[in-house]
Amino acid sequence: MPRAAPPPPPPAKEAPKQDDDYDPFNYTSSRAPPAAPSHPPPPSKSPEPVFSPPEPPAMPPSMPPSIPPTPPPAPPPAMPPAMPSFQPPPPQTRAPPPAPPSNRVPPRPSLEVQRSVTNTRRSIDFSRPSMESGFVANDVDLAPQSGWWLQPKGLPPQLQGRKDIFFESEESQSADQGKTMVTRDLYILYQDYSQTVITVTFDPQDTSNAHLDQRHEPPPRALRQDQLEESYERFGRLISTAVTSKKDTVVGDGTPQGLVYELLRPLGDALLPVGTRAYGALVYSNLANASTTLNDEIRPGDIMSVRNAKFQGKHGAMHAKYSVEIGKPDHVAVVAEWDGTKRKVRAWEQGRESKKVKLESFKLDDLRSGEVKIWRVMPRSWVGWEGQN
Asked: Where is this region: Disordered (predicted)?
């Protein structure tokens, strides 16, 4: 017993020395120092009765065998290689992401090319304005075999007899290789004030040799209120004064349209009506009181058109009921007065209830069906026409 007690302290002191002697070996096992001291105590107790007396120096050899079992913790050194194994993949994963954007760059110019194609489509579509722009002017069958342009007021067969257009023409001559060539320009105006311009160039001596072409122009842009007022000052006042002097007379052919035509004819630079439904720039529109538009105050001298309309309501001091249909066929009158509070128009008309020109009232709130439109007479320059009527 006394022998067993002293030996343990010396090995504890010698162990660090031996550890210093085997410093390189212990460096490999430095990461498992807690496990090393745990193993030495059990063998020191078990071999104490047998090995401690004869083999105090044998303790060092006993220590190396105790250290070989420590290599099992060698897996920790295996972990460092595992860590680098994870580190290389991130750079590999980072390398692919930049590659896709490089591949995506080429498609972008291809998209821009497609956009440029859409721009060219607009120019192509412009040659067919009536399909997408929404105006009436459209390609006309020019019928080159018919020779319609040889007539003084000839029109293509497709347009002959139509009452919803207004047209004018002009001719000029030119010399070409000793021949006299005639160029005729035909301007066709539709109710929305879009127009078709047909140009025919032909040899009067050889009517079979003719060149025909056509183009289309959109309606004029919507006018500002000050522009509408300017047209009123230019034409409206004159028309109002002229129609008042026609009271109780039959003007022109006695029709409602005849009255308006005769009032505009003396105004050489005023644009004449287009058929029986368009008389200039639209000032007011009322579709059965379901949809109304007012672009300017209704003024004397404006032209009121009525189509398929039914007025129904009460009038007079006794509030008597009334119902009247107007505009079958189309009716037209000249505004004399506008009462915005009562929404009532007083207008000069002829050819409806009386053949002579007289003053009638129309209460717009009583409109139950049909349409009422009021127009401002415009100059010829509004549609790009020069000269006078």
From this structure: 1-126
